Structure prediction request, 185 residues.
Amino acid sequence: MSDAGHVFIVSGPSGSGKSTVLREVFKRREKLYFSVSATTRAPRPGETDGVDYWFITDERFDEMVEKEQFLEHARYVKCSYGTPAEPVREKLREGFDVILDIEVQGARQVKSRMPEAISVFIAPPSMEELERRLRGRSTESEEKIKLRLETAKNELSEAEKYDHVVVNDDYMRAAGELLDIINNA
Ligand code: 5GP
Prediction:
């Protein structure tokens, strides 16, 4: 199995700029597969079903949990998120490295099932900057923003448990650092 790919768990609070960093990494690296999660959250403007997420109902989500089709799953800001297991296994067999963009509870589940997975935490330069970015996005209600900020504080306290922490002070630089981690695995 030496030709099989590696699993990279990438976590970071919303507003950490994780998606921008990941987008840059995908531009610069071949044979890298982005695991498309299933979620019960509503699509944001510009998001595409099957590309950003599989947008599914609560009923469908529960059915997938029951059939054990998720590698991990978690509740986050009142919605459910899960990683469909089969595409990950298939891509690993094909020799792809796989990126799981998941939050901290899911990261813990993957680490316990796949201890060889490499975990990377993308941290914002500061809490102030995180709040500024979250508000700048302005696609969410004040209540949801507050909840995301609260969640972010809890998530930041988990950073030290990750194999690597990448501070996103500049997304091009952070992407380079993440790419080095992937290429050296
Ligand atoms: P957002 O709603 O902003 O797209 O994502 C919220 C959080 O859910 C992010 O931290 C993201 O990494 C995480 N997330 C996305 N997909 C999954 C998943 O399949 N499982 C888990 N546990 N978290 C996920």
